[in-house]
Design a protein that fits this description.
2 copies of one chain form a homodimer. Chain A has 2 domains: 134 residues, Aspartate Aminotransferase, domain 1 (Alpha-Beta Complex), CATH 3.90.1150.10; 246 residues, Type I PLP-dependent aspartate aminotransferase-like (Major domain) (Aspartate Aminotransferase, domain 2, 3-Layer(aba) Sandwich). Chain A has 13 helices and 12 strands. In chain A, helix 11 runs parallel beside helix 13. In chain A, strand 11 and strand 12 form a beta hairpin. Chain A is α/β, with parallel strands linked by helices and 395 residues long. Chain A has a 7-stranded mixed β-sheet with strand order 2-8-7-6-5-3-4, sandwiched between helices. The first copy, chain A, has a 3-stranded antiparallel β-sheet with strand order 9-12-11, covered by helices on one side. Chain A starts with a helix and ends with a helix. The relative contact order of chain A is 0.16. At the A-B interface, helix 1, helix 2, helix 3, helix 5 and helix 6 of A face helix 1, helix 2, helix 3, helix 5 and helix 6 of B.
Chain lengths: 395, 395
């Protein structure tokens, strides 16, 4: 018998598996070119060529027992120093290797920092709509996730409600910018107000409230929009980063945490995060890929491809009358459903369009469309989207 | 402030870090060639050449978005099928891809299966001396680890006490064969008796007791000794494996769980383990290295090197009068301390010999010596071991 706490999750996962199986059946029935799968956040653009070159050069030139061996649980010191330097250049920060902990992707990093910070019953706040896995990550470490209700006007953080929901039990706040699922990018002004509120409430309660900046989509921003670096606006910020999207390496599980000297109880937080990385079973971030990313700090995938997809979708879906907030980051669009969310998802499926219901992100009445797909597939899907709009009386 | 539950672990880790720093100071003071570090289980033998060849061939010939992308959280189906076939050939088992879940090393695999099985307060049994991290892994998932006291005659499992310690709350038993820290290999006869006891007690309590076989050292066995494959002796067995030692890839974090069809509640256990791999933040085992190990299923490191080290140590340390159980697996020796354990570790350090105290493995009065080191270092250390034997009046 499995753990009782796993039973519901197994049920949910079998629903998702059923959807996936249905997608495969549809592909078999209608031909894969006639199924329009916008459900997955799996990057479609290839990694930059420098990634392959770095892999092969390291394999040919570095000591195998160094490249594939254990290192400090926080990662190779030279890799961490190179990342710190690169961040300092990009964001005018002042990090060094002590501030960087290499992790098994952003998901690994979030679990490491939550294990580091949370005692049973500690609260973590985030803003709806939000990446549903936060629920699981917080529960893993016996915390309680609370979501600030969505601001459905522009999907910026609802800061008034946020201020009311911060309590003496709030140990951390997770913010995801650029945002999954909305594609919105929070600007500096918003971050400054958020930081002011957190400073004020921390003083009021006499507590240290940590801000966890979950930033796997940092490099995916369009229209020249700036993604603020949060350690500059709130001392108590820990950044979680991943190369999954910036270098199209999601399977490799490589990312890092930035734990600045300015965070409360820095020495202990850094030491505990190192221990957490080990005891959660990660032990360390995979070794060879650590050395690869350190050589590719200025590389990034050709974001133009995603931008082209975005522009086509924004133009066409507006034409068809769909309502959505203009996406400026990540590779997601967040679309209001003109009819009941479940009915809309089902109607879309009849047109062989696969979308994720908004309630998976704690915000019903919407769907998430992931546009990290082939441009041609989007083009082919447009006629079906137009029919869907008419059927569901978007206008 | 960090979590209260992390505070003691940070203290312990700073003790270990202090030891490590002291080792570095000793190396600076006496020269690295005069410090004999037997404390770490970091493989000294290089990976087989086929590993590098596989890396480069995959990078040159397979689709980058396949090689570095997301796949099923349980791993690539073709990789899992190849591993299942290889196990079937080696052990006359009957696995297929549904039975294999790729993990972030054995540590990742143990956490996945413990998350899958344990509710709060569930008990897990293991046999002292044991790998200390089991305590952390079980605590991560709110279980309680209980260690069966050591059988100090031959360090085989103490099966009489084991039978008494099994209760209706026992959800799992972890067995590590070949054993860290003792180097002992449990033979088939022992496993059969252990299985009988578990079957009997499971019936008595009306519970399913899972046997978790932690086998990162499986390929490291000497003197032609056989390491039994536990799924053949107890239906409810889940195997955790890692390539860390067999292919000298500990930094890469690659291993797998075997969940046979014969385990109780198989469908749910396999589905829940897939979910656990995702929500613990592993998401999936690193992708490229999955594809590499699938091409190297018949490769293994040159175990002769470790065997040569073992033979030299066994010969010399016996001559000097040290008492130990003859190691036949892994790369560890388990030596009785002729004086108080702490005093012995300190005395060894004066001779620039670094050993891990037995109490770290739940069994005081012993030290663990890891011989995954250069043969020359062992040779150089022998004169110091001889002095240490005389000083501590081994005879």
């Amino acid at each position: 018998m499995i753990a009782k706490k796993m039973e519901d999750m197994v049920k949910n996962s079998s629903v998702i598996r059923a959807m996936f199986e249905e997608g495969k059946k549809m592909a078999a029935q209608f031909g894969p070119e006639n199924v329009y799968d916008f459900s997955l956040g799996n990057p479609s653009i290839e990694p930059p060529v420098s990634v392959k070159e770095a892999f092969i050069d390291i394999l040919n030139s570095e000591e195998p027992n160094l490249v594939h061996g254990y290192m400090n649980n926080s990662g190779y010191p030279d890799v961490r120093a190179a990342i710190a330097d690169s961040l300092n250049k990009k964001f005018d920060t002042n990090f060094d290797e002590r501030n960087i902990l290499m992790t098994v992707g952003a998901a690994g990093g979030l679990n490491v920092i939550l294990k580091t910070l949370l005692d049973e019953g500690d609260e973590v706040l985030t803003f709806a709509p939000y990446f549903g896995e936060y629920n699981n990550y917080v529960k893993n470490h016996c915390g309680v996730l609370k979501a600030v209700p969505a601001n459905t006007v522009d999907f910026m953080p609802n800061l008034e409600q946020f201020e009311q929901m911060l309590t003496a039990k709030t140990k951390a706040v997770i913010i995801n910018n650029p945002n999954n699922p909305t594609g919105v990018v929070y600007p500096v002004e918003t971050i400054k107000v958020l930081a002011e509120i957190m400073v004020k409430k921390g003083k009021e309660f006499g507590t240290d409230i940590y801000l966890i900046a979950d930033e796997p989509y940092r490099e995916l921003a369009y229209d020249g929009v700036e993604v603020p670096y949060l350690t500059k606006y709130y001392d108590n910020t820990i950044v979680g980063y991943s190369y999954s999207k910036s270098l199209s390496l999601p399977g490799e599980r490589i990312g890092y945490l930035v734990i600045p000297d300015s965070v409360a109880d820095f020495e202990n937080v850094a030491a505990a995060a190192n221990v957490a990385n080990r005891i959660l079973g990660f032990v360390n971030a995979p070794s060879l890929i650590q050395r690869v990313v350190a050589r590719c700090l200025d590389a990034k995938v050709d974001v133009e491809g995603y931008d082209k997809n975005r522009k086509l979708l924004v133009e066409k879906l507006s034409q068809f009358g769909f309502e959505f907030v203009r996406p400026q980051g990540a590779f997601y669009m967040w679309i209001k459903t003109p009819i009941d969310e479940k009915e809309f998802v089902a109607a879309a499926k009849k047109h062989r369009i696969l979308l994720v219901p908004g309630s998976s992100f704690g915000c019903a009445g919407y769907v998430r469309l992931a546009y990290c797909v082939d441009y041609n597939m989007i083009e082919r899907a447009m006629v079906e989207f137009e029919k869907l709009a008419k059927e569901t009386k978007v206008n």
